[in-house]
Amino acid sequence: MRVAVAGTFGPIHDGHRTLFEHALRFGEHVVVALTSDELAVETRTEPRPIPDFDDRVQAVTDEIAAIDEWNREVEVRRLETEYGIAADEPSIDALVVSPETAPELEDVNARRRERGFEPISGIVAPYVLADDGERISSTRIVKGEIDEHGRLLE
Length: 154
Hints:
This protein is an alpha/beta fold. The protein has one domain: Rossmann fold (3-Layer(aba) Sandwich). It has six helices and five strands; from the N terminus they run E-H-E-H-H-E-H-E-H-E-H. The chain has a five-stranded parallel beta sheet.
């Protein structure tokens, strides 16, 4: 099965690791759709510094290598539009999503149908919570609230 996972992934945290682990567990071929620098800025609801694309590619590659116990074929690609690879590539079978992004799968499949592609399945990875019971996020890390593992810093 060809599984995609998409995001900005910077800075990387345990929530991202859970997404990667789900993609690796279910996909023989994994496509990591990494937002371009421009898209990463456009899609932020709350502006924050974001590592450069090349730095994020290296971080994602390193993280996946560290957790890939299945020796999967992994490809990191630049995501230029919101639905990009998942909606535009007929060979994708499933998309790993968080509970927050799961509703977007409906839009992805509508776009796939418009192109004559089969709909894709969603693989929902659970949130990873910080010590305070709130979900871990890159925004919280950048703000200095938590570290990449969800430990409180304040």
